UniProtKB/TrEMBL annotation:
Entry GO terms, CC: cytoplasm
Cofactor binding comment, as recorded: Binds 1 Mn(2+) ion per subunit.
Binding partners and assembly: Homotrimer.
Biological process, per Gene Ontology: nucleobase catabolic process
Catalytic activity: D-ribose 5-phosphate + uracil = psi-UMP + H2O
Binding site for Mn(2+): 138
Chain residues that bind substrate: 86, 106, 140-142
Active site: 25 (proton donor), 159 (nucleophile)
Descriptive protein name: Pseudouridine-5'-phosphate glycosidase
GO terms assigned for molecular function: hydrolase activity, acting on glycosyl bonds; metal ion binding; pseudouridylate synthase activity
Name of the gene encoding the protein in the UniProt record: psuG
Record's function text: Catalyzes the reversible cleavage of pseudouridine 5'-phosphate (PsiMP) to ribose 5-phosphate and uracil. Functions biologically in the cleavage direction, as part of a pseudouridine degradation pathway.
Family from the record: Belongs to the pseudouridine-5'-phosphate glycosidase family.
Cofactor needs: Mn(2+)
Originating species: Bacillus yapensis
Length: 303
């Protein structure tokens, strides 16, 4: 297994010194945001984590290896290239064996972080149960990974391109705790609230780190969702974003978009229909998650 994993110098040093490490995904770079904002954001997010005293590890597949920590050139390549595969659990073996470039989703990043013994992972939003999944069966592999792999995912909730109610039910069945940071309501990515409650409210990073420790000390396998609402000043108008998401969903249906293309298609449409306003919100919420994730990692690894 070790032959597939390459740690960056920074991550290697962090491991040797017992410094807290925060995993970051690469699908958000290659398929979630346009160039050059994607690369700029990825670098800023890494910097926020460093300033908090933790070490960032952006994860991706390069030339048959799982890279834990990317160089500046690699970040640029993942942001710019149109030839990067979106890599979820099922894609890992093929992409590694054929030495293709792969940008890891939440599910794949959790797997790779787990292999590198990294427990805290920051991203924007998780995949979930899509609207209409009762006929399409479109349920993100992210949820099954949360059920099975011991990595906590700090996110801004899930977008209402998904069915948030069914997503919560799925996570409940699989025993995945959904913890709201300073909120008892599930945030909906662009907005701070939704119609759904989280399972628990935690008001400090310490409380979250302690909950994660307890979960894994009890050998309760699987991850946790830490839902951190977008800062008020960067949140979008709820009516506006709801309308935009409705049109994006209709376009996806009219264009017969399915499988792994669905989420990137919807993300790009939402950005286009909001004149890029949603991109600004997206960038800010990821940075906000990086701050919280680093705090959780500090508490998790030092106590
Ligand atoms: N949601 C977002 N931004 C993203 C994604 C989801 O708001 O970039 C990406 C993540 O990498 C997530 C993936 O793991 O999409 C889910 O894809 P799918 O629904 O195909 O499993
Ligand atoms: Mn899907």
């Amino acid at each position: 297994m070790e032959q597939y994993i390459v740690l960056s110098e920074e991550v290697k040093a962090a491991k040797e010194q017992g410094k807290p490490i925060v995993a970051l995904e690469s699908t958000i770079i290659s398929h979630g945001m346009p160039y050059p904002q994607n690369v700029k954001t990825a670098r800023e997010v890494e910097q926020i984590i460093r300033e908090k005293g933790a070490v960032p590890a952006t994860i991706a597949l390069v030339n048959g290896k799982i890279k834990i920590g990317l160089s500046d050139e690699e970040l640029e390549m993942f942001g710019k290239s149109t030839d990067v595969a979106k890599a979820s659990r099922r894609d890992l073996p093929y992409l590694l064996a054929t030495k293709k470039m792969g940008a890891t989703t939440v599910a794949a990043t959790m797997i790779c972080a787990d292999l590198a013994d990294i427990r805290i992972f920051v991203t924007g939003g998780i995949g979930g149960v899509h609207r209409g999944a009762e006929t399409t069966m479109d349920i993100s592999a992210d949820l099954e990974e949360l059920a099975n792999t011991n990595v906590a995912v700090i996110c801004a909730g899930a977008k209402s391109i998904l069915d948030l109610g069914l997503t919560m039910e799925y996570l409940e069945t699989k025993g995945v705790p959904v913890i709201g940071y300073q909120t008892n309501v599930l945030p909906a990515f662009y907005t701070r609230t939704s119609d759904f409650a989280v399972n628990f409210q935690a008001d400090t990073a310490e409380e979250i780190a302690a909950t994660l420790k307890t979960k894994w000390e009890l050998n309760l396998k699987g991850g946790a969702v830490i839902a951190n609402p977008i800062p008020e000043e960067h949140a979008m108008d709820e009516e506006e974003i709801t309308e935009v998401i409705e049109s994006a969903l209709q376009e996806a249906e009219a264009n017969h978009i399915s499988g792994k293309d669905t989420t990137p298609f919807l993300l790009a449409k939402v950005k286009e229909l909001t004149d890029g306003k949603s991109l600004l919100s997206n960038i800010e919420l990821v940075k906000n998650n990086a701050r919280l994730g680093a705090e959780i990692a500090l508490s998790f690894y030092t106590k």
